[in-house]
Amino acid sequence: MNPEVNPKAYPLADATLSKTILDLVQQASNYKQLRKGANEATKTLNRGISEFIVMAADAEPLEIILHLPLLCEDKNVPYVFVRSKQALGRACGVSRPVIATSITIKEGSQLKPQIQSTQMAIERLLV
Q: Is residue 5 part of a domain?
């Protein structure tokens, strides 16, 4: 573990899983299956339309997104941290850093197989 990562940012995806997650975030963005930002992510959880939540471990202060893991656990939605809000923003197709994003449920989505395998990979981190 790199010392600069906040220990509260758990579970943290390793480099390989992060790449998979960011690729999927990018595809979800193209398929309009993505909500960007902590507030939008919170809304998808409350409405029960989130497949999983991706957060940035370098959000400053991290507390601004730490309500999300609690809500995820409450709603039984997988969640994961990636190291960089800059990289997460790029994957979301915006030039600004993004600290939280939600991949949303869509009936008959072409991304379903990738989403399911990523959910399983995230859940394996949580044991």
A: no
Q: What share of the chain is helix, strand, coil (3-state, %, to 5)?
A: 45, 15, 40
- What digits encode the pLDDT tens for the residues 58-117? 999 999 999 999 999 999 999 999 999 999 999 999 999 999 999 999 999 999 999 999
| Domain count of the fold of the chain | 1
How many Å apart are CA 93 and CA 9, to the nearest integer? 23
Domain that holds residue 56: 15-124
* Average confidence (pLDDT) over 10-29: 98
Share of the chain above pLDDT 90, in %: 94
Cβ atoms < 10 Å from Cβ of 53: 27
Within a domain: residue 120?
yes
**H/E run at residue 100:** strand 100-104
56 vs 14, 67, 110, CA distance in Å? 13, 13, 26
Task: Identify the CATH number of the domain in which residue 29 sits.
Answer: 3.30.1330.30
Residue 3 clears pLDDT 60, i.e. is over it: no
